[in-house]
Amino acid sequence: MKKLNNLTNKILLDMYKIIILQSILLICIGICLYFNYNTILSFALILIFIIIGILYMKKLKTYLVLPFNDVVNGLYDKGFMDGISSDKKISKQNINNILERMHEFPHTLDDIIYLIGSLNKDISIQDELEYIFLKFNKYVPYSYIGVALVKDGGETLEGEYAIGDKSILETLNNGNGTQKRYKISSTSLGNVIKRGTPRIINDLEKYVERKESKPYNEAILSAGIRSSIALPMIVNSKAIGVIFFSSIYKNVYNNEHVKFLNIIAKSIAISFNKNMFVDNLMYSSILALAKLAEARDEDTGEHIERMKAYSKLIAKLLYNKSSYKAQLSLAFIDQIEKFSPMHDIGKVGVRDSILLKPGKLTEEEYEEMKKHTIFGGRVLRAAEENILKSGKSMFSMGIEIAEDHHEKWDGTGYPNGKSGQDIPLSARIVAVADVFDALTSKRSYKEPFSFEESFDFILKMSGKQFDPEIINIFEENRDKIYSMYSSFHTKNASH
């Protein structure tokens, strides 16, 4: 910075010297002409004046014009001059726009530097996306950001994270095209992933017209998205996923936007890769433990997959229509899908003679069985304590579900006799899903109940075992519950 200031001072001093010298020459020429001095002398002074003027213009070009051009061209290359004509015929308005954008550039740079710095800290991926969404939409027009990650050895692409306008998120979450995982070969993103090249679509309606109809395309259009940029997230020359920036307006994106957003995509790819590795390792380890608990009982082997689906469906229905809407979010729905399978993780601590007993448990055995909620809470709390050392929380909802999914609305449940809204909402939702699937499934001590019998039992337990508002929503959506029930039991019957 000191060298830059010295250079600036030198340029200004040279300019002042030239201006003073030219001023003196002008005065001399004026005196000569006024007093009719030697004409040759006057012409000589005029010639010197012209030469100094040429030297002055060269200095101006060297120290001002060329550096200005270099800066502007550099900003064009990096995408910071989007929306400003790069035509050689520069208008006054164009110059004003360029100067205004150059004034913004240090702030843009600050935002990028802060983002890169934050990526080295242990903040969540969702927090990173929220920062990007709030800070960079003044440089690039977008209403939605989504991230899809490459899975199954590069065969599939799974939507993992999203942030955007609430109406867009609600439509994408609740529409028919909300399947999260697709074969890469069945999507148009193959080139983005395999070649590592960004893609711009400035008119999604026209683009979709030329393609085979797909549920996710219909969902995107229903959400109001009309243009999009897809950029590969690359780590060690390999695409780990795709990040989307989408707008509700047509024809808003250009190559300058791509250049700018590439900086963002490259910056967050490494952080995503690191965070995903740690999170997936921890989550997979705990989930494996939960599946181990279920695998000990052949009758409950697929229970966690079914009750996970029921839990997510109930949460979505509550999100759309209930007084709990304010307590719910799309992140809550994703988390309940992720952590509901851990509800019975504590059963790893229950003896086989109790867990697999075909008949009714004795009072003593039942007391032992009830401890699985305490065991599950301990397992997840231990995992949470470890991950909290890195400055973030991961298993808080899992702990709620494991400890409280056997609590009852009227306070007669276990392990702590909680009642009403003292029971976490996540546990109240999972309680309904857990019991409904248990009723409709075969267990060591019973045959499966019919859909009608199971559904009616759930309704009768409203206000006793279950939250009345959750049961109201459950009853109002009987058709959706039955549709999910049928998909599971038809599939099982075919095996």
UniProtKB/TrEMBL annotation:
A Pfam family that the UniProt record links to this protein: GAF_2
Domain called HD-GYP: residue spans: 278-490
Highest taxon above the source species: Bacteria
EC code: 3.1.4.52
Record-linked InterPro entries: Cyclic_di-GMP/3'3'-cGAMP_PDE (IPR052020), GAF (IPR003018), GAF-like_dom_sf (IPR029016), HD/PDEase_dom (IPR003607), HD_GYP_dom (IPR037522)
Main EC class the enzyme belongs to: hydrolase
GO molecular function, one term: cyclic-guanylate-specific phosphodiesterase activity
Keywords: Hydrolase, Membrane, Transmembrane, Transmembrane helix
Entries under SUPFAM superfamilies matching the protein: GAF domain-like, HD-domain/PDEase-like
Transmembrane segments: 12-34, 40-57
Listed name of the protein: Cyclic di-GMP phosphodiesterase response regulator RpfG
Species annotation: Clostridium oryzae
Gene (UniProt): rpfG_6
